[in-house]
Structure formats: structure tokens, C-alpha cells
Amino acid sequence: MNSLFVNFAYFLESSKKYYNTKHFFYELLEDSNSLKRRYFDFFMIFLVLSTVAILIYEVNHELLPWLDTYETFAVIIFIIEWLSRLWVSSHSHKHIIEDYEKSQLINKPYYVSKSLKNIVSEKLSFIFSPMSIIDLLAILPYYRPLRILRILMLFRLFKILRYTNSIKQFRHVFIEKKFEFLTLAIMFFMAVAFGSTIIFIYEGAGVNPNIHNYFDAIYWSVITISTVGFGDISPVTIQGRVATLFLVVGGMGVIAFSTSIVTTALSEKLLILKEEKVMGEANSLKDFIIICGFGRMGKVLANEFTKVNQKFLIIDQDDDTFKHSDNQKFLTVKGDATDSTLLENIGINGGGANTIIAITDNDAVNLSIILTARSLNPNIRIIARANNPKTKEKLIIAGASEVILANEITALVASEYIGQPVAFEAIDDILLNSEGAIMDEIEILDKSNYIGFKLEEVNLDKFNLTLIGIIKSQNKNKFIFNPKKNIYIIEEKDIFIIIGHKESITQLKIDLVSTKPQRVKNG
Amino acid sequence: MDNNIIIIYSFSKLAAQISTILYQKGYHIIIIEEDLTLIKEAKSLGYEVKKISLLDDENIRLLDMENKNIKAFFCVSDNKNINLFVTLSVRSLYEDLKIISVSFATQDNKTMLLAGANKIINPYEIGALRIFRLIHKPYILDILDNILFSASNIEVLEITIKKNSILDKVYLNDTTLLDDYNLILLGILDKEIHDKFIFYSNGINHKLDAGDTLVLLGKDKDLQNFTILLENCS
Q: Which of A:264-303 have CB within 8 Å of B?
């Protein structure tokens, strides 16, 4: 019997299929960063709300057969979901392997019962966890003979807690502010007890025709303290009215106190909630760039990336900068970019980030970002800004792939303006991607119909484009300046360097793939 | 070199870089600065330094920029408001002076132009676009660097057409001269259209006139030969 369990445990441990299936269910049910889970959560929320809607409809309508079938379908899904959660809650076979290997190590006989005890205890702790109980209570109302169970259908609404992060945080608010809420509850209880006792003593013995018993007194007290005041019971004696005054004033205090607790806690949670959302989004991104520092340079860069739909994430720890970036709907994390945990969490190591750009106005901070990023990922591309030319070498030693000296480049550009202002204006327009002409690169794709044809077959004049030259990417990126159009033969992976208007360049890119040259192929 | 004096207002980090490059190109640099440490630093690098405040018009007049044949005036202090004030003051006194001012935010460019600057340089914009090209257009960055900073034999040149030159009153589509010299026409600054620069890629068959400036791209030798041709045939 023992060996049967052990062999089966080892079989599961070595089975890739078993691992993949369990991992799939884990991602679907528990992995907060998984896209699958997001879709599953939406589906479950829909299922819960629709079954509750059916319950409401059922109150004064006869249940349609297809709605009954739908309810059955939903309950089957709930049962499968609960069983799957039970399954992924722990790795039972690992207990057996662990215990077996331990006993082998100390040369003692292995008893499977010991492992089973641990497994059952783990599974029971899941079964009796609050969310699991809610899941079970949500399934029970399906048993129609017991009509009373139908009220438990409302427990399905609690299931939504599982599927929405914001509601989960709301639940955490109550857990974290337990002490404050307990104090509030005690105050509330004492006020109710005090008020109801007074009113019952003075108006209970037939003085007030609406107060028949102590419950009526409690009811009046709660309605008054909550400042609802239905008016169905109102005090008729002086003592009762004085008690009412105290209760109303106290009630306002209780409401103000509870509101302030909830709002303070929620505003604290809001930042965490946002950060978690950004982290989740960052983890689902592929090929994105991390911009550390959202200063003047960071803003220009972010706008340029937005224009070409390049995904990026900004890290900045300044409150105002963070707000500014957040207002512009850029994916932003408020934090220290030199913090390795933060960089790790947003996917610098093995995640979707392919480049990190350190452009704060402090060279020491940039250096620290480079070192942290390089230590986490030796292959990531790091571009850094050096504010002081003397720091450039240090940034390269630290591991920067490229270093930008903004002042040096600006000075070079400015010095060109002194010599040839008109030429400079032309280049400057291109450099600044202004509204006029732009310089762009067009790669000749393998499916292009123009491969093997002369350059003159590409109708550049039709699009008013100027060809500066061609880069031979298959030949060590050799640059051919202004090639002769009637001689040059187009090859695959050639890169055309073109100046012209954006629309014309886009159209040429399409034409190079979708149209055919007019003449016969050369060679 | 005639007309080779450059005045740089303030010896900021950017000013230090500009001074170095222009000094290497043979320009005579005059630094205007009030901070003693920066004055000392500028002097140690061999620049002529004047310790005056340009917030006073009298001091600007004392520079006598008209008579001294100043090539350009750089206004590159780290303070945006002071830059605006000095640019406006210098422009009001010297109408034809070439003023290049720094701006630290794109939205400030317009204000600086209104103050009278001929050209705005924004280190953050230039730096950010350089990073952007490093990632998205590395080939273009390489080519622009080669053209701009003369790292290869391809250069950019501007030529103003003289009266009776072989290009005077010639339609662009009617001449093969540029092809003959393997030159690319980037664009034209047309005197008739209020000094407006037109990219050749706009597709206009432009009629060239004396006073128009052509911006050409070509190999240094071809550009030299073309310049000689224009000079000889006018």
C-alpha cells in the first residue's frame, strides 16, 4: 500500500502533463499577474450576477426551463472551481515524497498515514477558510427542496470578493482597522444599550403606546442613533426626549468617526491598489522600456514613445512628477529606481523589459540605477544620461550600454548653426521630428516584389521622397550614399534612408510590399 | 578669421561645452559672467572673460557688438527668466545680431522666439530625441551624426545663388547639375517667400533665383567641385 502511494507520488512529480495542467489551473485561479485569471474573474463575476438576477426574477415569476438549465450550468462551474481551488491549494504528492525520502535518510520504515494526515490537515484548512465557506454556501441554494437555503444565494455576491482587487482591498481595510472598528462597535453598543434602557424604563410600562417590549426600545435606539429616525416610535416623556437628544448627537459622532476611519484607510490603500495595478500591467507587457526619471528629458522621451506606440513604464519618486506622469495616463510607479526589489518586481530580470533608461538629473543616481539593473540582468540594454562629461567613463564602467551627454550634443548642434544656419535649420527640423519632413528608414522585406529590380523601379518621385542612401544590412551595414537609380539593384534587407513627409513614407512602405514593378526583373 | 567673435552669456555647463567646440573651430570666445568661481574656470581655459551684468542696458551697449563684428551671441544661463530678459535686451539694441538662446522646456520655445532669439536650443529635447533614435532609428542616428559632426566624407553645405550664376532663373526639374555632381538637394530657402525653408520633398518644381539658398548633401569633394563650378560660371 505504502509503495503504491510513493510510486504514484513520484509519477506525478515527474509528469510534465500533470505539472502543466496544475500550473494552468493555478494561473487561472490564483496568479494575480496572469491574464487568464483576469478573463476568468470577469466570467465568474458575470456568472454570479446573472444567477442572482435569476433569483430576483424568480420572486414573482415562474422560472423558465432554460433559466433552470443556466442555474445548473453555473452551479457546475462553481463546483468545478471549488474543487480546482482545493486541488491547487497544496501539493499533496510532495508531502509523500518528502516524508518518504526523510525516512529513507534515517533508515526508518515509511508510513503513508503520516503523510495523509498532513495532506488532509492542509486540505481541511483550505475547506474551512472564509472564502471556501462562502464558495460552498453559494452552491447550497441549488438544493431547491430547502427553500430557506435560497437566501444563501446572496453569498454568491460575496464570491465577487475573490474576483475584484478593489473589493479585496476594501476587505483588508476592515481587517487592518480592526481596533478602530471594535472601539466604534463598543461605543455604538453602549450608546444603544444606554438609550434603549432609559426609554424602556421611562416609557416602557404602557406610557408610550408604541413601546411594547425591550426590543422596541432597542429598535428605537438604533434608528435614532443612526440618524435615520423613521418616526414610528417617538418619545412622549421629557426623560425620553432628553435621551433622544443625547442619542442624536452621539449618533452623529459615531457616523463621523466611522466615515473618517474608512476614508483614511481607503485613501492609504488607493496608492497600494494603483501600484499593484501598474505592477500587474508591467508584468503582462512584452518588450517594454523602463524610464527612470520623469524630468524634462523624460517627458520628451515619453511623448516620442507614445507617438510610435512603444510601451514604457516610468519610475520616479517625486510626488509632483509622479502625479504629472499619472495624469498623462503613462504607466508610472512611484518609487526609487535604485531599489533592486522594485526593478525585479517590474520585470527587469526575465520579465518583459528590454531596455532601461536612466535619465535623472543626478549622475550618482544614474550610476546606482545602472549598477542595480546590471546586477539583476547582465543582458539588458542600459542607456544613461551623463550630466557631467567626466562621469561618462564611470557610467560605462558601471555597465551602461550607451551614455548620452545632452549638453555636448546640444553644443555640437549649436556650433553647426554658427557656420551654416540654413543647413542647420534643415537638419534641425529633421532632428526635432517637426511637422515638416522627417527622416525615416524603410527595410526591404523578404516578401517585397522589388527585390532584384533596379532602384529606378521604385517610384520615389511619385511620393516626393528623397533617398539619401541605402544601408546594406547584409554587408556589415555598409552605407551607399545617393546610389545611381539606373544601376543599383535592390536586395533583401536593404534599408532605405528616406526624407519626406510621414504619409508618403507610409505609402511607400505599403507599395514596396503590395505592388509590382513595371518592368522585367534584371539578371 | 574675420567676424569670428562669439559672445556667450553665462558660463553654465552647456556654455562650457559650446565654448570648447567653438574654440576648437577657431572662434574667439568672450564669456560674460559674474560668478567669481566660474570666471576663474573660464579664464583657466583660455577664454576672454568680462565680469559685467547684462541686466543693465548700459553694459550691453558697452560690448559694442555692431562695430566689433560679432558672429553670434549665445544666451545660455541656467535661469529661464534671465535668459528671456537678456535676449530681449540684446535684441532691442542689436537688430541684426544672431542670437541663440537656451530653453529648458518645449513650451518655452515660443516665448524665447518672441523675446528675439533667432534660434532656440533645448538640451533636454535634443538629448531625449537622441535616446529615442538610439532605440527606434539607430541607422538614422548614425547617418545624422556622420553628416552633422563631419565624422564621414558626407557633408551638408548651403550655397547662396548669385546673380547670373548658372542656377539663376533655372527650374529645378530642368537641371541635371546636381545629379552630375552626385549631390542631394535637401531643400531651398526662398528669398521671395519670406526666407521660408522648403524641403525638396514637397515636390515643387521651384524656380531658382539669385539670393535663394540651397542646402545640399554630398561627398566633400563633390561639394567642393560644385562650389568651384558655381564660382567660375557666374
A: 289, 295-301
Q: Are strands A466-472 and A438-443 parallel, antiparallel or unpaired?
A: unpaired
Q: Where are the alpha helices (DSSP H) in chain B?
A: 13-24, 36-44, 57-62, 80-93, 109-115, 123-136, 138-148, 177-180, 220-232
Question: How many angstroms separate the CA atoms of A463 and A498, rounded?
Answer: 11
Question: Domain residue spans in chain B?
Answer: 5-127, 154-232
Q: Is the domain B5-127 a CATH 3.40.50.720 member? A: yes
Instruction: Starting at the earlier edge strand, list the strands of the sheet with B196-199.
Output: B154-160, B213-219, B184-190, B196-199
- Residue A491 near residue A451 (C-beta atoms within 8 A): yes
Which CATH code fits A178-268? Answer: 1.10.287.70
- Residue environment code for B180-215, b if the CB has 16+ CB neighbours within 10 A, otherwise e: ebbbbbbbbbbeeeeeebbbbbeeeebebeeebbbb
Question: How many CB atoms are located within 10 Å of the residue A456 CB?
Answer: 15
* A33 φ, ψ (degrees, to nearest 5): -95, 0
Phi-psi category of residue A477: left, alpha or beta, with phi > 0 → left and psi -120 to 50 → alpha: left
The beta strands (E) that lie in A282-434 are given as 288-292, 312-316, 332-334, 353-358, 381-385, 402-404
CB spacing of B135 vs A289 below 8 angstroms: yes
Top mean-pLDDT range of A87-96, A416-425, B225-234: A87-96
Domain A435-514, CATH number (from 3.40.50.720, 2.60.40.420, 3.30.70.1450, 3.90.76.10) = 3.30.70.1450
> Which of B121, B139, B199 has its CB closest to that of A436?
B199
The chain B residue lying nearest A477, using CA atoms, is B139
Candidates B119, B134, B140; nearest CB to A383: B134
Q: What percent of chain A has pLDDT over 70?
A: 93
pLDDT at A523: 46
How far is the C-alpha of A273 from the C-alpha of A267, rounded, in Å? 10
- Alpha-carbon distance B132 to A64, whole Å? 61
CB–CB of A468 and B144 under 8 A? no
ipTM given for this complex: 0.82
C-alpha cell at A502: 510621414
List the single residue in B118, B203, B217 with the smallest CB-CB distance to A468. Answer: B217
Spell out the domain ranges in chain A.
Answer: 2-162, 178-268, 285-408, 435-514
- CB atoms under 10 Å from CB of A60, counted, come to 6
pLDDT at A230 exceeding the cut of 60: yes
Q: How would residue A344 be classed by pLDDT, with cut points 50, 70 and 90?
A: confident
Whether residue B196 contacts residue B186, with contact meaning beta carbons closer than 8 Å, is answered with no
**A148 CB-near residues (< 8 Å, 6+ apart):** none
Q: Structure pTM?
A: 0.66
Looking at the structure, give the CATH architecture of the domain made up of residues A285-408: 3-Layer(aba) Sandwich (3.40)
Angle at B92 between CA B89 and CA B96, to 5 degrees: 120
Chain B residues within an 8 Å CB radius of A506: none
Cross-chain CB nearest to B123 (options A355, A410, A466):
A410
Q: Of A460, A470, A509, whose CA–CA distance to A490 is shortest?
A: A470
What is the DSSP code string of A404-439?
E-HHHHHHHHHHHHHH-HHHHHHHHHHHTT-SS-EE
Classified by CATH at the fold level, domain B154-232 comes out as Alpha-Beta Plaits (3.30.70)
Asked if the model's pLDDT at residue A144 lies above 60, the reply is no
Contact A411 B124 (CB under 8 A): no
Sort B160 into a burial class: Cβ within 10 Å, 0-12 / 13-18 / 19+: middle
What is the number of helices (H) and of strands (E) in chain B? 9, 12
3-class DSSP state for residue B28? strand
Q: Any idea what DSSP says for residue A489?
A: B
